[in-house]
């Protein structure tokens, strides 16, 4: 008989799951949405919360239904796709995007405001990032419970800080909410929808979800049905926490323009807002916590990507991968936060639609009998437009691409992959029926049942 957990323990698990997604990087995007969207902030945040928060829970549940790892989930399309998608996912979660982004965010919020306007920013960033990533290597060298233990300390501190910051911004607002900027005048919801990609939380859920599944087995939760049930309960707590976090960040951004003006990135928005609200002490308050959340994010991501590559290329040890990815992350960090966000945009516009399509397919699996052709058709349909969006975002012939493919619904808003993914779905279904492909059903407990046609 399995243990029935009391609500207090479910709450603790939900907060632990929240801590896994609580990183320095995912608090910098909602403030920018708030600054740019102005009076359309809450419309834009509706879209942002779908991709930046709501899909996190669905991604973890999809993982439990799809085999427990991202590789098994993606293999439903094709083994080669699983390898390519997983490698891109882990590299983005590690040295290409998350580690440089996190390190740069910590610098922008905790260090840069203290250096003075006349400081050599590039030199300070190089010195800080070298020391910060060296600390990341040190803490990642041997697998310990450092991140878990520190996370339990950081979460309450961060919540207290947020309550203080948001409370002060409501009691003494920095300014009124202004008019939306050009890109948020029309299509604010879809713009927010694509901005939610940058939190990386859905992609991180594919990695951290597997870790979470393993960790709860020690609580006496064994069956897949019980695991899924616990995920839903704990996940709702996590979702509430993430919604509160992102909405609060959007409010700070929306109300900050009169006092601090428009900023180039969310790190600057948070740093300058903290100074405006609390004076000199504000930057020390938020800087300390951002530093701690940043180091835990870096350690978790560096360890995860190094363990993954040691698994697929065992001839290179975990510690060697740590060094390789740390050096790569250090180099990319020193391009600066704005450049990192710009360089990462094409990759995220490629990976996120594919991830969303995989989640949708897992939940709809039994409706189309789990036919592989449906998985393949949907991913091809989604992937074609996702690649075009990535090329556009990289600045390669965006006008020409829009002119040629603008007939696709929502294409110019970055959501054309929805229509082409659905077309691919139905083409795959027709092919599966004509070939009489075998069925692969998923039970409520997550078990697979294969049937010949």
UniProtKB/TrEMBL annotation:
Membrane-related topology note: Multi-pass membrane protein
Record flagged with keyword Transferase: no
Pfam family, one: Branch_AA_trans
A GO biological process held by the record: isoleucine transport
The UniProt record lists the keyword Flavoprotein: no
Superkingdom assignment: Bacteria
Record GO terms (molecular function): L-isoleucine transmembrane transporter activity; L-leucine transmembrane transporter activity; L-valine transmembrane transporter activity
UniProt entry keywords in alphabetical sequence: Amino-acid transport, Cell membrane, Membrane, Transmembrane, Transmembrane helix, Transport
InterPro entries assigned: Brnchd-chn_aa_trnsp_Livcs
Purpose: Component of the transport system for branched-chain amino acids.
Protein name: Branched-chain amino acid transport system carrier protein
Source organism of this protein record: Bacillus thermotolerans
């Amino acid at each position: 008989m399995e243990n029935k957990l009391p609500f207090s323990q479910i709450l603790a698990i939900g907060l632990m799951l929240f801590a896994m997604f609580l990183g320095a990087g995912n608090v910098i995007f909602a403030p920018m949405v708030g600054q740019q969207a102005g009076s359309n902030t809450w419309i834009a945040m509706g879209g942002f919360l779908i991709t930046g928060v709501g899909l996190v829970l669905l991604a973890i549940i999809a993982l439990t239904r799809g085999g427990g790892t991202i590789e098994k989930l993606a293999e439903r399309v094709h083994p080669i796709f699983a390898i390519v998608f997983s490698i891109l996912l882990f590299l983005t979660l590690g040295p290409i995007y998350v580690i440089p982004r996190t390190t740069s965010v910590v610098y922008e919020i905790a260090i840069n405001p203290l250096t003075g306007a006349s400081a050599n920013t590039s030199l300070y960033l190089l010195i800080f990032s070298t020391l910060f990533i060296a600390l990341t290597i040190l803490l990642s060298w041997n697998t310990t419970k450092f991140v878990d233990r520190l996370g339990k300390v950081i979460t309450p501190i961060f919540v207290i800080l947020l309550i203080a910051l948001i409370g002060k911004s409501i009691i003494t607002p920095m300014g009124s909410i202004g008019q939306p900027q050009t890109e948020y005048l029309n299509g604010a919801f879809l713009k927010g929808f694509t901005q939610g990609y940058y939190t990386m939380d859905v992609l991180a859920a594919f990695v951290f979800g597997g870790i979470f599944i393993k960790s709860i087995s020690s609580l006496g939760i064994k069956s897949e049905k019980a695991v899924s049930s616990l995920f839903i309960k704990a996940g709702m707590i996590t979702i509430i926490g993430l919604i509160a976090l992102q909405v609060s960040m959007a409010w700070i951004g929306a109300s900050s323009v009169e006092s601090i003006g428009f900023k180039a990135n969310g790190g600057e928005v948070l740093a300058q807002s903290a100074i405006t609200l609390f004076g000199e002490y504000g930057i020390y308050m938020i800087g300390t916590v951002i530093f701690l959340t940043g180091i835990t994010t870096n350690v978790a991501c560096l360890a995860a990507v190094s363990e993954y590559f040691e698994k697929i290329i065992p001839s290179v040890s975990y510690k060697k991968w740590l060094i390789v990815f740390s050096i790569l992350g250090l180099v990319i960090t020193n391009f600066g936060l704005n450049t990192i966000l710009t360089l990462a945009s094409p990759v995220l516009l490629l990976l996120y639609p594919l991830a969303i399509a995989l989640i949708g397919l897992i939940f709809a699996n039994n409706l189309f009998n789990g036919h592989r052709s449906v998985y393949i058709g949907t991913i091809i349909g989604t992937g074609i437009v996702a690649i075009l969006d990535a090329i556009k975002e990289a600045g390669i012939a965006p006008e020409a691409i829009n002119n040629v493919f603008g007939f696709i619904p929502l294409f110019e808003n970055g959501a054309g992959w929805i229509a082409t993914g659905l077309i691919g779905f139905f083409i795959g279904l027709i092919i599966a029926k004509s070939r009489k492909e075998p069925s692969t059903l998923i039970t409520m407990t997550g078990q697979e049942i294969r049937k010949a046609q």
